[in-house]
Amino acid sequence: MKLLPDYEHMDYRDVYTHLLHPYRHILGLWQPDIGPYGGLLNVVVDGLFIIGWMYLPPHDPRVEDPMRRRPLFRIHLLESNKATVECMYGHKGPHKGDIQTVKKDEFSTKCNQTDYHRMPGGRQEEFRTWLEEEWGRTLEEIFHEHMQELILMKFIYTSQYDNCLTYRRIYLPPAMPSDLLHPGLFKGTYGSHGLEIVMLSFIGTYARATKLTGDPNVPAGQLTLDVDLRRPVVLPDLEQQRNIEELSRLVMGVHEEVQREDQQQAMDTSAAARGAAEGASGGASVAEGVEADHITCSDSCQPGPSTTTTTTTTSPPEALPFVLPLGVMARNEVYPRTCRKCFYGTGLIAGHGFTSPERTPGLFVLFDEDRFGFIWLELKSFSLYSRLTDHLAHSHAPNMERFEAMLMNMQSWTS
Q1: Is the omega angle on the peptide bond into residue 61 within 30 degrees of 0, that is, cis?
Q2: Beta strands 320-321 and 355-368: pairing type?
Q3: How do beta strands 381-387 and 329-330 pair?
């Protein structure tokens, strides 16, 4: 009996009935449940196969290189018109696997022949092969001891699954005319953790980057960047930009203003609640969001759009000179030397195991439609993000409500 069907004589009604229709619910984008590391899986129809492709970032720190793809499973028909699932993990070719739909927007894969994943040289050979694929280098070429520990930890953690994984559906964010740039997926540099994938979306007057892949400090699913588009920051001349103290002064001026507004809003909310409890009519109302032209650091900030205006203009803004301050670490020294706009934002940092998470102030830098950066002031480091240009079918959210619900669920998966 042949393992592959004779496609020339295949009835396409059988293909639809026994392959496409039963497995239509797993097409699209998914995030694997691999602890803090997460991932990005795209399930597509490829000819007479359904294939699950895992998307991997390029090797650190080449953030603008294309994504890498690795097949994890495939489904096709035998001559008996029976759909068969094959695990593609490892280096010995396709072997028996299984797929189970757990519940709506969730499915699981199982390898039935995990011996196909083993190598003659044992775990050492498996680690060397994984390291070359994952990082594009040997362990001896990675001199930083902490990075070596993180890499070994990831290998031990992820290899234990043997491609027996649970996947949860994710969506690409809907695009709105008011968005600062087109939302979507970006590759970003995260220090010793290497390159990670984030999803940039726009909610009201905020730009938010959510991790699709993560690390033991800040896991997948968490909100890594939160940018307030009402609070632009005007950079000084190039000489002043090289001074980290000057950049800190500009950003911390906005940060302190945000903290004061939050405190005032909390006081007003508390007063309104007390007034309502006492039966007072027309009690104190919750303070409305303060617009950018109310910010006190007028020498470093320019008025931004209010919540009723769009964040884009009919013509692209003029390119402005940009340089990183001295003392700020960057994994990739090849970053754009001009930018369009800068905004105040916060980035999420945490200890190992996602302990003591804290939002810390920083500067969001929009370079162009496909690249942005973030300067982490407390860490004195710079992350550069570059857009994924791969076409991802069956991936857009049906509406904003479904997308926002997905974001909330993602945070709960790894919290």
Answers
A1: yes
A2: unpaired
A3: parallel
pLDDT value for 292: 32
Which three-class secondary structure state does DSSP give residue 232? strand
Distance separating alpha carbons of residues 386 and 389, to the nearest angstrom = 9
Between CA 212 and CA 232 the distance in angstroms is 27
The token pair at 217 is 């400090």
Q: What is each CA distance from 182 to 110, 202, 209, 216, in whole angstroms? A: 36, 9, 13, 29
Whether pLDDT at 304 is above 80: no
Q: Which residues contact 137 (CB under 8 A, 6 or more apart)?
A: 59, 131
Q: Do 312 and 207 contact (CB within 8 A), yes or no? A: no
Please give the C-alpha separations between residue 356 and each of 135, 168, 349, 359, in angstroms, as whole numbers.
29, 27, 8, 10
Nearest-angstrom CA–CA distance, 359 and 362: 10
Asked if residues 302 and 234 have their Cβ atoms less than 8 Å apart, the reply is: yes
Question: Rounded distance, CA 182 to CA 357, Å?
Answer: 29
Please state, in angstroms and rounded to a whole number, the distance separating the CA atoms of residues 31 and 212: 7
pLDDT in tens, 186-230: 999 999 999 999 999 999 999 999 999 999 999 999 999 999 999
CB count, 10 Å around CB of 307? 11
| pTM of the complete model | 0.85
Decide if pLDDT at 137 tops 90: no
User: Are 265 and 287 spatial neighbours (Cβ–Cβ below 8 Å)?
Assistant: yes
- Render pLDDT for 54-110 as a digit per residue (tens, 0 to 9): 999 999 989 999 999 999 999 998 766 788 999 999 889 999 999 998 788 999 999
- Classified as helix, coil or strand, 258 is helix
Inter-CA distances, 24 with 85, 88, 100, 296, 353, Å: 14, 20, 13, 55, 37
CA distance 313 to 322: 21
